[in-house]
């Protein structure tokens, strides 16, 4: 019998998931409904920096349909800390409780979790919780935050510094001394808020008979969520199951273990019932990791014939109030190591200071460090070309890395 087959590589392969998604047959976390499932809503801080003086949950507990109300202190013995999964040398890892313990450090930080029989009751009850704050001074600019006299977020991080990281190759000082052209410029790569169609959502369901817990989560990293949940909670990894159904966009903002996943996990175990939380859009803007937020002073040097001889920069990278899962790696390893772009630049130096501020934590978003580096390099090349009166395309061609034999057939 003769059979024919088309090669996979080089062939046009139809996307198999499209028909059900475009006809409304997809299944997202919020579509999952379990018997006896409860719903969770959060009381979030309206203050960027404050001591929590008191929390009165009596009115919320009295509302019909409310099953339980938890403060950070009431969950502390059931939760570990939100972990940072990728650090650079000398990173100051500050404690990151999933729910605030005595102090809030950014707007949107979870202070109280309300559990009820449906989501509307949970939200209504959350609005009845009375939290008294002692408002503290705030700092949101990373360059200012490291200066003396600024508000301090964490005792462990003096002057709000999380790390100082530097990478260098060649001799930028010599390149500067020999340069025919030198251009200096400050670049601000603004903070961004991810805005995927589906916000984050979590369901946690605990089976006391098997000691197995199942997590449905709108995540880009179900396997890593499983690993980190086990590490943080101490629950055996083989008894944790993480399910990621259809995801309505992520773009990097669903690459992390979030506090809400840990909180859902702990409360489901405590109550012995499934617990669902679906993020509201306002929560998304406040509590889902933001992106970028760099302040950098840069210099490019070169010759009048269009040869680029060096690039160097000093960057303040805003990390927010706490470290997200990959936060230290994004403005360092994924940024500083790609600053040559496609160009043969012999001398490069980059220093990055990671800084805590009273803002939402920052992590990977749409390229994670690489777009920030590309912007810096290409903008500097454009400025260099303008200064010497040369076509920017010609400058790029002149400095492009030449073809080389990397030992692999193409």
List strands and helices in order, with pairings.
Blueprint: H1 18-22, E1 38-44, E2 50-56, H2 58-62, E3 66-71, H3 72-75, E4 103-104, E5 110-116, H4 119-128, E6 130-135, H5 142-145, E7 161-169, H6 172-178, E8 181-192, E9 201-207, E10 212-217, H7 222-233, E11 240-243, H8 259-271, E12 275-278, H9 281-287, E13 290-302, E14 308-320, E15 347-356, E16 362-363, H10 370-388, H11 392-399
Parallel strand pairs: 1-12, 10-11, 13-16, 14-15
Antiparallel strand pairs: 1-5, 2-4, 2-6, 3-5, 7-15, 8-13, 9-10, 9-12, 13-14
- Unreliable stretches: none
Return Rg in Å: 25 Å
Oligomer: single chain
Largest sheet, strands/sense/barrel = 7 strands, mixed
How would you describe this structure in keywords?
410 residues; alpha+beta; seven-stranded mixed beta sheet; six-stranded mixed beta sheet; 16 strands; 23% helix
Write structural notes for this entry.
With 410 residues, the protein is α+β, with helices and mostly antiparallel strands. The protein is 23% helix and 28% strand. Strands 3-5-1-12-9-10-11 form a seven-stranded mixed β-sheet. Strand 9 and strand 10 (212-217) form a beta hairpin. The chain is globular.
Give the gist of this structure:
The chain is an alpha+beta fold and 410 residues long. It contains 11 helices and 16 strands.
């Amino acid at each position: 019998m003769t059979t024919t087959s088309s090669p996979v590589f080089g062939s046009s392969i139809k996307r198999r998931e499209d028909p059900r998604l475009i006809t409304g047959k997809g299944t997202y976390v919020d579509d999952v409904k379990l018997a006896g499932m409860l719903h969770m809503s959060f009381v979030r801080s309206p203050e960027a920096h404050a001591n929590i003086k008191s929390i009165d949950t009596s009115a919320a507990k009295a509302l019909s349909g409310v099953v339980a109300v938890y403060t950070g202190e009431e969950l502390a013995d059931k939760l570990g800390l939100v972990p940072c999964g990728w650090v650079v040398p000398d990173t100051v890892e500050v404690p990151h409780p999933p729910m605030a313990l005595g102090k809030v450090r950014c707007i949107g930080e979870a202070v109280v979790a309300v559990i009820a029989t449906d989501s509307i009751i949970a939200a209504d009850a959350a609005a009845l919780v009375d939290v008294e704050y002692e408002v503290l001074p705030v700092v949101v600019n990373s360059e200012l935050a490291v200066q003396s006299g600024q508000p301090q977020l964490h005792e462990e991080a003096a002057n709000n510094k999380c790390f100082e990281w530097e990478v260098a190759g060649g001799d930028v000082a010599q390149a500067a001394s020999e340069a025919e052209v030198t251009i200096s410029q400050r670049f601000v790569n603004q903070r961004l808020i991810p805005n995927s169609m589906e916000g984050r959502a979590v369901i946690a369901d605990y089976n006391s008979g098997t000691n197995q817990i199942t997590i449905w989560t709108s995540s880009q990293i179900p396997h890593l969520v499983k690993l980190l949940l086990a590490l943080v909670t101490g629950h055996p990894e083989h008894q944790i199951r993480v399910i990621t159904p259809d995801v309505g966009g992520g773009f990097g903002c669903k690459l992390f273990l979030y506090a809400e996943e840990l909180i859902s996990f702990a409360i489901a175990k405590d109550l012995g019932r499934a617990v669902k939380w679906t993020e509201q859009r306002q929560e998304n803007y406040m509590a889902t990791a933001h992106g970028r937020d760099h302040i950098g002073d840069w210099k490019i040097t070169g010759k009048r014939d269009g040869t680029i001889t060096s690039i160097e920069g000093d960057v303040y990278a805003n990390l927010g109030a706490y470290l997200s899962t990959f936060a230290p790696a994004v403005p360092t390893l994924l940024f500083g190591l790609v600053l040559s772009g496609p160009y043969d630049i012999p001398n490069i130096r980059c220093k990055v200071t990671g800084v805590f501020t009273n803002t939402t934590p920052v992590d990977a978003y749409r390229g994670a460090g690489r777009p920030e580096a590309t912007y810096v390099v290409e903008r500097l090349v454009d400025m260099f070309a303008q200064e010497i009166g040369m076509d920017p395309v010609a400058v790029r061609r002149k400095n492009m890395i030449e073809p080389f034999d990397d030992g692999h057939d193409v």
